[in-house]
Design goal:
Shape: globular
Order of helices and strands: HHHHHHHHHHHHHHH
Helix content: 55-70%
Number of strands: 0
Largest sheet: none
Radius of gyration: 33 Å
């Protein structure tokens, strides 16, 4: 009996279901993935970049990005050295001119004088303005080292250094190219000498510090306010609540700045200009957020002007047109000194507007 025929193992497979061999062949038939080109190292001569690219130098010259902690620390150290080297002679200086306002003030010397500084500003010797924050710092310093001039001078220098560092931080946040060099020029510019070395000019460096802190807090608030709208409903609501603290912080710094010098009243206008520069327009919401700033500035400035008018009798025969000419002359005069600080003086000759028509 013949054996049964063997089954054909090489039977035809159904189409659409390739066998193992066919799948392997299909994979082998795929074209190989292209190999990415080798990246040339940044320090290689072929890259066209310098052999040595210091992160510290990049942090000083480039637009602000995420630099290393070492680069930031080095930049801060250089700014500190610039300020110390420029104002080291202040440690050996004494009181000059109307620094006598501090020494002869009973409110600065007495422990109970702090109340008079805030509640009875007219009692301060030879002071026609309501700037209680300035005299509060003098009051605190007197309790530490009496009327030793060195302490007051060093505090002025410390405030100036704080202004330099806050300015650098602020310019970095605004993504200004060359922020470090701008802060370095600010640190050593000769126009700051009078404000730093003259003790009674504490109002300049102190109000400047509060001004910069207010701007910094407000810019963080504005950035977070936009981010809160972009985020989800719940997360955005929480973020906005946190950012409102930055808003009230900016308002507080603004108020303290006004209690240091009235020129800080220009801050709301400067912030609106920033909105226009950053976004190309000033919205109704921007105006609403500035209303408390305008209100606080109006109240404190009017109070300061009222006090000044009650303590000083100014008789002026200057016409309105001459006032505008004096203001225009002062603007261009100090802009010129800012660009080319030569022939500086503590008191400049009086500008007579009438001579411009002669």
């Amino acid at each position: 009996m013949p054996p049964p025929p063997r089954k054909n193992k090489n039977r035809t497979r159904r189409p659409g279901k390739p066998g193992k061999l066919n799948r392997v062949s299909a994979q082998q038939a795929k074209p190989p993935r292209p190999t990415p080109p080798a990246q040339t190292p940044a320090h290689s001569p072929a890259s066209g970049a310098p052999l040595l690219q210091s992160p510290i130098l990049r942090s000083l010259t480039a637009t602000p990005t995420a630099e290393s902690a070492l680069a930031i620390a080095f930049a801060v150290l250089i700014l500190c050295l610039l300020v110390v080297a420029s104002y080291l002679p202040a440690a050996f200086a004494g009181f000059v001119w109307d620094d006598a306002t501090i020494v002869e003030s009973k409110d600065v010397a007495a422990f109970s004088g702090l109340w008079n500084i805030w509640a009875s500003p007219g009692s301060i010797y030879n002071e026609a303005h309501y700037w209680p924050m300035v005299y509060t710092t003098f009051w605190l310093e007197h309790k530490l080292w009496g009327f030793t001039p060195r302490g007051y001078h060093l505090v002025n220098v410390a405030f100036h250094l704080a202004n330099v560092l806050v300015l650098w931080r602020l310019l970095r946040r605004m993504e200004i190219t060359g922020a470090w060099f701008a802060a370095a020029v600010f640190a050593v510019h000769p126009l700051h000498v009078e404000s730093v070395l003259w003790v009674i000019e504490r109002k300049d460096v102190l109000s400047g510090l509060f001004y910069l802190l207010a701007v910094s807090a407000y810019l963080r608030f504005a950035a977070g306010h936009v981010a809160g709208h972009i985020a989800g409903h719940v997360a955005g609501h929480i973020a906005e609540r946190r950012n409102w603290w930055l808003y009230f912080g900016a308002l507080l710094f603004y108020t303290l700045g006004l209690f240091s010098k009235s020129i800080v009243v220009t801050l709301p206008a400067a912030l609106l200009i920033w909105h226009w520069w950053k976004h190309g327009r000033i919205t109704y919401q921007n105006l609403l957020t500035m209303l408390p700033f305008f209100a606080v500035g109006l109240v404190i400035t009017l109070g300061d002007l009222t006090l000044a008018a009650s303590k000083e009798t100014i008789v002026s025969f200057i016409t309105i047109s001459e006032r505008f000419l004096n203001a225009a002359h002062a603007l261009w005069f100090y802009l010129g000194k800012l660009v080319l600080p030569v022939q500086l003086a503590v008191i400049y000759p009086h500008f007579n507007a009438a001579d411009s028509f002669a």
